[in-house]
Amino acid sequence: MHDPFIGTWTLNPGQSQFDPNHRPGEATMRWELEADGGYLMLAEGIDAKGQRRSEKPQKLFPDGKPYDIESQPGLSCVTSRSGRNGIRAEVKREDGSIAGEGNYVVADDGKTMTATTSGFDSQLRRFEMTTVWDRA
After folding, report:
1. 77 lies in a domain?
2. Which domain holds residue 58?
3. What is the pLDDT of residues 43-61, one digit of tens each?
4. Is 15 strand, coil or helix?
5. Choosing a second label site near 57 at 20 to 30 A (CA), which of 30, 36, 101, 126?
6. Would you tell me how many other CB atoms lie within 10 Å of the CB of residue 51?
């Protein structure tokens, strides 16, 4: 059975709704399935100022259990499946409050993925956005 998330995705800016503080010029996201059953999600792109940006790789285990985020002490990630084509990830603080979340849904035809994300950026500004990605 082919996993609908695995592969490279290219941002479709015309179909996306960005936060005013987060307007990428272009972006690519790659999902890989690792031997331990977790996903490795890698993202990079060019921001509104034309600067190349790379996000820290994210490791997602869709088993509903919390995993510490090594690069962000005090935070853990809980990831679960929402059907065959959906994944929900929540980043939680030690007190259990949500610092960020994302819902990723691949269309039935496997050609697009919609990501609805919210949280706080590195400057502690709240953001919410919906991005649409096309399979590369």
Report:
1. yes
2. 7-135
3. 999 988 888 988 889 999 9
4. helix
5. 126
6. 9
Interstrand relation of 58-60 and 52-54 (parallel, antiparallel or unpaired):
unpaired
Tokens representing residue 3 in the block = 């996993």
Of the chain, the end-to-end C-alpha distance in Å amounts to: 20
Please state, as a whole number, how many other Cβ atoms lie within 10 Å of the Cβ of residue 89.
Answer: 20
Alpha-carbon distances, residue 116 vs 10, 71, 80, 87, 131 (angstroms)? 15, 23, 15, 11, 6
Question: What CATH number is given to the structural domain containing 97?
Answer: 2.40.128.120
pLDDT tens string 85-120 = 999 999 999 999 999 999 999 999 999 999 999 998
User: For residues 77 and 29, what is the distance between their CA atoms, to the nearest angstrom?
Assistant: 19
Does residue 75 contact residue 97 with C-beta atoms inside 8 Å? Answer: no
